[in-house]
Amino acid sequence: MDYDAIIVGGGAAGLSAGTHLSRAGYRVLLLDKESFGGQIMNVEWIEDFPGSAVPVSGAVLGSGLVNEAEKCDVHMQLGEVVEIESYSGCKSVRCADGRGYTSSVVIVAGGLRPRKLGVPGEDRFQDKGMIHCTLCDAGLYDGQAVAVCGGGHAGVVEALYLANHASTVHIIEAQSGLSAPAPLQERAYANPGIEIRCGAEVVEIVGDRFVTGVQVQSAATGQRELLNVSGVLVRVGFDPATEYLEGVLSLDDRGGIVANDVSETNVPGIMAAGDIRSESPRKVAAAVSEGISAAMRAQRLLQMAAA
User: Fold this and answer.
1) What's the farthest any 2 CA atoms get from each other in the chain?
2) How many whole angstroms separate alpha carbon 62 and alpha carbon 37?
3) Among 22, 46, 202, 244, which residue's beta carbon has the most beta carbons within 10 A?
């Protein structure tokens, strides 16, 4: 076999699992579709990380996990996994570009993907005003207005960061109020560069070559208004990245992988860890813990196979 263990997903859970197994002397391949470090690389501050009395930079924390995995000789490659198959003697993982790898065990830790609005213009303006990485792209909108769709934790955190650059940040929330934690709401309402609209939703993203505005519709009256913005960030929720696992692993009604208390799925030798799991608390500390738990179970299975 090519490796002892293959890990799908390069976020906190996957990196923690890979580091643990590699330290134990196993050959580990870690695959991620886009980059290593996960969603936390795009978070300015993590305010509830255990053991830290002050907020921790998401980029610093993510980079630290990547560096530790590299030091432990985890083999990391970019690749979009599109298929996992289980055979009597091994597991097979296939990537979109045709590459394939085999291993004794697999840990699925692919995390979440941002949910789309599903409105006209959203696909058309990808890379033309649709913001995906706030920390990467905020500087492109210096002195310009932007819209953030979603008033939950992620939306408000990223709106606060964008407000350091943009002339105005419009937070647009479909519900009657923000759902972010109270301290974040207080900071957003107190920030003169942030305008908050609740009970409204974006129904269209407009522009020519690039985004020039959003059509916002009031839930109460149905009236529409055009807001002139140069960028749009969508943070209306996240879904587990598990489409390729339908019919392979047991999934809940939201697409999360069903796993037991030692991270095992319904397929022997395939574990799940982090935000991709059903009922995940979606916290960085939990992802790290679950990654290590999955690695410990994988290690036990590898030991049993070698006995």
Assistant:
1) 70
2) 5
3) 202
Name the more confident of 111 and 216: 216
Residues forming beta bridges with residue 114, ordered by sequence position: 238
Q: Whole-angstrom Cα distance, residue 97 to residue 173?
A: 39
Query: In 109-257, where do the E strands start and end?
Result: 112-114, 130-131, 145-149, 168-173, 194-198, 200-207, 211-218, 224-228, 231-234, 238-240
- Can you list the domains of the chain with their CATH numbers? 3-114+238-306 (3.50.50.60), 130-234 (3.50.50.60)
pLDDT digits (tens, 9 = 90+) for 264-284: 999 999 999 999 999 999 889
Q: What is the DSSP string of 170-184?
A: EEEESSSS--S-HHH
Neighbours of 186 (CB within 10 A): 11
Whole-model pTM?
0.87
Integer Cα distance of 216 and 207 in angstroms: 14
Residue count of the chain, please give it: 307
